[in-house]
DNA sequence: TCACTCGTTGTTAGCGTTAACACGACTTGA
DNA sequence: TCAAGTCGTGTTAACGCTAACAACGAGTGA
């Protein structure tokens, strides 16, 4: 298969010689140029096949100034959300004919984002998707002089970049309205870290739903997305006798909340109802199975590539914003409030 | 910042002109060539800074025939294990000065692996890490005529490729021995899909530990890593009155098992003890917190890059195999067996 | 018949870098 | 003092591809 050791890989000129044409004709065949006689084309293709020739994309990139590589900058791809988004991005990019080069950041300070973009720019990527869920990252992106077409995922409002995101506010609303509709007087909230845009959006949705129903919004408890922080919030909540419904900003923290409630003998959903966010694969098997809000990460990834490719290939200039709606998933962690609590 | 619109990016010749030297001298400065007068070097650096020059890595790759890009082929990076491994790989590669290009496969048939490698080869990667946890993928890899230096993660024995993996057999042993040491008569097993090498290794470790203790190995129940399949296995186990200890091949399935036991009124660890595998971030907050085996995915990722870079830069030819030991994590899902069961 | 167009192919000139070699100015040692 | 290094630098030629243009024969309309 063209790997006879010690021989150098065939180049276009070798194919040309084999087919008895010029290397430019080979190039034309490879690039589907219309003006090539079909007989010639066949001869070239046969030579390509015989020699096991593969076009050198680096040389091609040098002359065309396009590498057909997209960069992805993301924060901790170990987390379910980012991992799923990046997965969606990668699938979409590949099927659009682009390679994907990834940088995943431990901490997402503005300098980190800047460095990552420089790094990718050096590599010669044609465009970049930045998964920038923190406000600071989004701001950094907005302030940067962007030499390369860029799309932000969950990237806030500012700046010139296009943004694709899940409607977090709607998600927070959905969760809260569900609990209110079951008859709960009010809904408590365990939020994500305050500099995360997603956390902010969910808080806003929760607050809006309460306000609309004319209910008082209790002080939210702040977590950091980890089950551990949910557990701590859960211990606090278990001590308060007037809590009957909690909207937790992600499923992992909800797991911690459930754990704390179990330990304290608070029954879910008997005494307290709990709603999570994300719909991770595990949440259907929590005890009890978790009612939650699902985000279509895959769609987010796909859309971000669509937007980017539109800009790259059709030369679209105006900035786009695309919002993916979340979905409500009813399971067993929510019920009507208890009679006498 | 060198981004004055409408002007083309500066190239080496521009820097050379600015500094009053030849472009080759600029190249020497950039590549830390020793024979450059320090005064000249300073002048060049100043010109680089003034023009905001950045070296074109594509042109460089064309002439050096090395792209400083590594490819990663992985199966479903949405799963915690692969995601963490890929994360470790990416970090290690970047700090070794390599870019990382990712292909994540939905299904990992041999043709898929082959295509992914071809695809990356076209892009001009210098080396590849294949996360190949299925036997079929490992076999495909072993059979392939590998034009590019390749390292397999969890890749089995065959072929010429170097392999980095976690010692799954030791993990299975650890889990089983722990349960036996608590006084359980025997240990049941919920395994992963049979074509996964990891599943196979865990089964082998479990079987070996039982054999060594002179116990009968019950028929293992086969799952597919999902909480759902664990739940189903759990329902079967709950019905059998002689089960007091279960080793589940991953934490997600263990979650399903716990859920089934809870539903059937089987108390954990009161009546049945459960051990998982992986130590995902959630498992400390399961009900009860899960005793499990932790795998250092990060170390696996790092080692795979070390092996690859050794081959790339020091020209090492012999194939290496590196095994990372798993660790036992005791939590609250295991206890002595009940008296009269 | 001639001028013109069109389809097909070849020739030449880059893209921006590094490698290889050439060359003069110094040093060094006999 | 001269042959033989070193050092610092410049010149030229690739790397493998595409873009731009040139060339040529065949068809077309006047």
Automatic annotation (TrEMBL), chains A, B:
Gene3D superfamilies documented for this protein: 3.40.50.2300, lambda repressor-like DNA-binding domains
GO MF annotation, one: DNA-binding transcription factor activity
Keyword list, A-Z: DNA-binding, Transcription, Transcription regulation
Domain HTH lacI-type: 10-64
Classification via CDD domains: HTH_LacI, PBP1_LacI
Pfam families tied to this protein: LacI (PF00356), Peripla_BP_3 (PF13377)
InterPro entries, A to Z: HTH_LacI, LacI/GalR-like_sensor, Lambda_DNA-bd_dom_sf, Peripla_BP_I
Secretion signal span: none
Domain of life of the native organism: Bacteria
Name by which UniProt lists this protein: Transcriptional regulator, LacI family
């Amino acid at each position: 298969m063209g790997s006879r050791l010690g021989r150098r890989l065939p180049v276009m000129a070798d194919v040309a010689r084999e087919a008895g044409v010029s290397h430019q004709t080979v190039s034309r065949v490879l690039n589907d140029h219309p003006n090539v006689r079909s007989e010639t084309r066949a001869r070239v293709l046969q030579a390509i096949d015989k020699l096991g020739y593969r076009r050198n994309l680096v040389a091609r990139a040098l002359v065309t100034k396009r590498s057909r590589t997209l960069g992805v900058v993301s924060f901790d791809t170990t987390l379910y959300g980012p991992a799923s988004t990046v997965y969606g991005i990668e699938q979409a990019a590949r099927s659009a004919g682009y390679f994907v080069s990834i940088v995943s950041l431990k901490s997402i300070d503005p300098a980190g984002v800047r460095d990552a973009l420089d790094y990718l720019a050096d590599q010669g990527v044609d465009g970049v998707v930045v998964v920038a869920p923190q406000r600071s990252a989004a701001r950094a992106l907005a302030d940067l002089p962007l030499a390369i077409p860029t799309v932000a995922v969950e990237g806030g409002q500012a700046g010139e970049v296009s943004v694709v995101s899940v409607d977090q506010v709607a998600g927070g609303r959905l969760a809260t309205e569900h609990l209110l509709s079951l008859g709960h007087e009010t809904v408590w909230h365990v939020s994500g870290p305050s500099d995360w845009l997603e956390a902010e959006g969910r808080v806003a949705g929760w607050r809006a739903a309460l306000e609309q129903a004319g209910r008082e919004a209790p002080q939210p408890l702040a977590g950091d997305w980890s089950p551990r922080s949910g557990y701590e919030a859960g211990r606090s909540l278990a001590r308060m006798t007037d809590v009957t419904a909690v909207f937790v900003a992600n499923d992992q923290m909800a797991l911690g909340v459930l754990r704390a409630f179990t330990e304290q003998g608070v029954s879910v959903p008997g005494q307290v109802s709990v709603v999570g966010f994300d719909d991770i694969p595990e949440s259907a098997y929590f005890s009890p199975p978790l009612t939650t809000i699902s985000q279509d990460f895959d769609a987010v990834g796909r859309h971000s590539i669509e937007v980017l490719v539109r800009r790259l290939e059709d030369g679209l200039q105006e900035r786009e914003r695309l919002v993916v709606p979340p979905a409500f998933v009813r399971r067993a962690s929510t019920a009507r409030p208890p009679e006498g609590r």
